[in-house]
Amino acid sequence: MKSTRLLRTLVGLLFILAGAILFIRLTGIIIPFNIPSYFFSWQMILIVLGLFFLFSEGNRNTGLVLLIIGLAFLFRDIFGIGLLAMIKYAIPVLLVIAGVLLIFPASRSKKKGRWEKKWGGRSTETGNYINAVHILSGGSRLIRSEEFRGGEVVCILGGTDLHFRECKLSPAENVLNVSCIFGGIELFVPSDWTIRTDTTTILAGVSDKRIKTSFNTAADPEKQLIIKGFLMFAGLEIKSA
Fold first, then answer.
1. Closest by CA position to 130, among listed 98, 171, 177
2. 148 DSSP 8-state letter
3. Looking at residue 110, what is its pLDDT?
């Protein structure tokens, strides 16, 4: 927890420094030292966010994706590497990563749970943890867990919906980490669940659209799902299961 707070503070200070230097440059004030222009680029923002998520708990997949995207486009601009060249070098790297994942799948399966079956574009998962990554794609999942504890959902230029109507929460702290950039996430949860959100949003929003009527069951404070993460140009909606 302390390391995460320290990293968040360092990233915040870096953004403040970058914003202050950029403001000074726009006003025409001469800075006694030279700062490369790519320091203020959108690629550098992705790299900084990637490093932040990479060293924080529960968001390493998001950090790795952001870091790769930022570095790829930064190298393209600095060294003049074309798109075809990047694809050429990316293919062997992806093959190596795929090989490593095939050789060492066991620890991931034990931690996150195994798939039960698939039908009609919707997957059913019975594990206590969920790990969903959607890049330029979408998906739908039905979670059937007797003690759901949380997990991680990553959507980049994509979206997903998670259905928890047949799911029970564990008595411990249940944290769902979400990272969504240019996408959307929909959570369908029972009416008696208490939802707490602790997200960082940039031109994004989080809304609880569960239908509240006199017939609804009151929220149970012991059935609590904590949603943490980062949203940019994205939306997270909580709906009735």
1. 177
2. B
3. 41
138 and 188 Cβ atoms separated by less than 8 Å: no
DSSP annotation string for the chain: -HHHHHHHHHHHHHHHHHHHHHHHHHTTPPPSS---GGGGSHHHHHHHHHHHHHTSTT-HHHHHHHHHHHHHHHHHHHH---HHHHHHHHHHHHHHHHHHHHHS-HHHHHHH--EEEEETTEEEE-SSEEEEEEES-EEEEEE--SSB-EEEEEEES-EEEEE-TT--B-SS-EEEEEEEES-EEEEEE-TTEEEEEEEEEES-EEEE-----TTSPPPEEEEEEEEEEEEES-EEEEEE-
Report the pLDDT value the prediction gives residue 120, as an integer from 0 to 100.
Answer: 40
- With 0.85 as the threshold, say if the pTM is over it: no
Q: Tell me the one-letter amino acid at 148.
A: F
Query: Pick from 185, 161, 176: which is nearest to 235 by CA?
Result: 185
**pLDDT tens, 136-147?**
778 899 999 999
pLDDT band, residue 31 (cuts 50/70/90): low
Q: How confident is the model at residue 27 (pLDDT cuts 50, 70, 90)?
A: confident
Q: Which residues of 199-227 are buried (b: 16+ CB within 10 A; e: fewer)?
A: bebeebebeeebeeeeeeeeeeeebbbeb
Contact 190, 143 (CB under 8 A): no
Residue (of 176, 200, 201, 193) closest to 239 by Cα position? 193
To which residue do tokens 């030292």 refer? 33
